[in-house]
């Protein structure tokens, strides 16, 4: 009981740090469980950002960074967007928020350019780093082996948009059609959730000797009955046999020996040359897409002022969540974190508007550094939240 009270108090009074806030453009506002930044400027245009908390500890982490994408101030310059949807706890998503970009900058410096290979290496280095952390904490905090995170990244550099994804967060482009004036939704990210038949087939082909690699549990498809996503950072209990044993909770331990990794940390990466009719990209954790289709989200952004776009998307998603439970939105807002998770997930949305006039020069012209963390809360990189007993892992 005392430990639960201490966890609660730590969550309420986590220190705010200005370590990443390079200027006033990084400030956001708080409205109950909703944090938002209506408008900011990045190297290639504007952005809007919003996060609403549902879990006791916020498991979604996110960032917008716009400056040199290498370890050298000489560039290349661009914009980095990351959304990290944690499950089982906040440790993995916080670790990614503190380390992925630094790895990307290091590999960019080595290769002197941004590429899909650089992004892939940054993901792998982040995965290896978190595995090392789990190894070091295994005896003291073994349940950290069952914590993981989806990982969606967008990088804009030299007129090119790179999208990398693990899990079921999603990036959707709004592209204008000159002939009709409408803006079409184009999904840019590939998802790794076993509710998708092709993802189930992929897992089954990788594990032909395991008839129960994917099972239907409580009317939801899950990998080994445990987790919905097939790719992630963390979740090392499904990647290394030495972490799928006592003292890990029995409900996470497999009955049969783990012969090879079940989950992967290899991201799906796509590369897009930005065009003048590309208007904006919506990056969001699956908490948004549970309630809105791609086209509905694009229409909301297109048909309203840019300022507050992300907050508007979150609000509409919450209204839909309330409607599904036959309750009023105003009553949903009164429900506290923890209990709120029974009504909706943590939701993070970043809308990145693209100014085609800035695209061509942004990679070579130094612009003011922008660094914003979703929620406005930063913990020192060597600090992890107290582990809370996960519910059903991977209910992303």
UniProtKB/TrEMBL annotation:
Protein name, entry field: Uncharacterized protein
Superkingdom classification of source: Eukaryota
